[in-house]
Design goal:
The protein has a single domain, classed as Rhopdopsin 7-helix transmembrane proteins, CATH 1.20.1070. Helices cover 74% and strands 4% of the residues. The chain contains ten helices and two strands. Strand 1 and strand 2 form a beta hairpin. Helix 2 runs antiparallel to helix 3. Keywords: Membrane, Transmembrane, Transmembrane helix.
Length: 333
């Protein structure tokens, strides 16, 4: 009997230790991401005109940093409830940020379609509503654990109803998967249309290059993360510590942060290039080949893929020729 008790104790300690290792690894990843991109943030966010994506990018970066840092704060009997409430707040903010990002991206790439952008936003907000209700109704109790010391335990209202909990899990993750699938399909349709247009102009731009630049890899990663979270919630429903949830909870915000940094960097370089071309041809900065950034910025733009510099140059030259021809026609009119 004592042997079985010892084995159970060792297994419990192993699970707790593994969870702590994962927490430290995720926090380290978030801190590392913030540090290596802090220069880009200052240059492309705080030193450029304020747009909705810029504000969203700044909030995403610092929200994931604070949310990850809270995972390392030791719990006490007095800080149990406030600490858990703060964790819930940042978690809900992350759901809202993901919904805004997906909706703005669809709105920008799909001819400012309110139907698709609102549909994506509504689907992405389903987990926000479910988690908000759970956060409001949950209770928090601190107790002394012989292995970890003071531990804060959340009494989930659905814990006694496994079926209801699984249904809500499927609804929440299923809505996110559907939203990501819509964004991905609309992105592919837009990319295919652009690629066919370049083929009609006899431009040699590969479909792979287009897929690398339209954010397909990011949205596939977001879709895969939500599928992994759904599978993890399903198979770990009876486990005390879901070991994958920490990773799948923080990675979407990290991916969105990196995606928007890439977009802002591309937009910054394009703006500088267009200004330089305008100065060289007109002797002043009043004429630009690209329209000025509005409140949405360049959230519907393309990314830097890092492998196809020649193709990117060809596309930029073609865009310049097209815009120059358009300006000449308008001048003659």
């Amino acid at each position: 009997m004592s042997t079985q008790s010892n084995q159970a104790l060792v297994q419990a300690y192993s699970q707790l230790a593994t969870a702590d290792y994962i927490t430290i690894a995720i926090v380290s990843l978030v801190v590392y991401e913030i540090l290596i991109t802090i220069g880009d943030e200052v240059r492309i966010v705080w030193q450029r005109p304020v747009t909705a994506p810029a504000v969203l990018l700044g909030s995403v970066r610092w929200c994931i940093l604070l949310a990850a840092t809270l995972q390392l704060v030791p719990s006490t009997s007095n800080s149990c409830t406030p600490l858990e409430i703060m964790v819930w707040i940042f978690s809900l903010i992350q759901f809202l940020q993901i919904a805004l990002f997906s909706a703005l991206r669809v709105f920008a790439i799909w001819n400012k379609s309110y139907v698709w952008s609102l549909a994506v936003f509504a689907l992405s907000m389903v987990p926000f509503a479910i988690n908000l209700y759970q956060a409001v109704e949950s209770k928090y109790v601190s107790f002394m654990d012989p292995l970890t010391g003071t531990t804060c335990n959340e009494e989930i209202i659905f814990s006694a109803r496994t079926h209801s909990m699984l249904v809500l899990t499927y609804v929440a993750r299923g809505s996110l998967i559907l939203a990501d699938a819509i964004v991905l399909i609309l992105t592919w349709m837009k990319t295919l249309g652009n690629w066919l247009a370049t083929r009609r102009l006899n431009m040699t731009v590969s479909l792979t290059t287009c897929l690398l630049r339209d954010g397909t890899l990011y949205f596939i990663a977001l879709l895969a993360i939500n599928i992994a979270q759904l599978l993890n919630d399903n198979f770990s429903a009876n486990l005390s510590i879901p070991l994958v949830s920490m990773l799948t909870t923080n990675m979407p915000s990290v991916l969105i942060s990196r995606f928007m940094i890439n977009l802002r960097t591309t937009g910054s370089e394009a703006s500088d290039y267009s200004m330089h071309t305008s100065d060289r041809r007109q002797g002043q900065s009043t004429l630009q080949f690209r329209t000025p950034e509005d409140l949405l910025g360049n959230i519907g733009g393309t990314l830097q893929d890092g492998w196809s510099d020649e193709s990117c140059d060809e596309e930029d030259d073609a865009a310049g020729v097209y815009d120059e021809g358009r300006l000449d026609i308008s001048a003659e009119a």
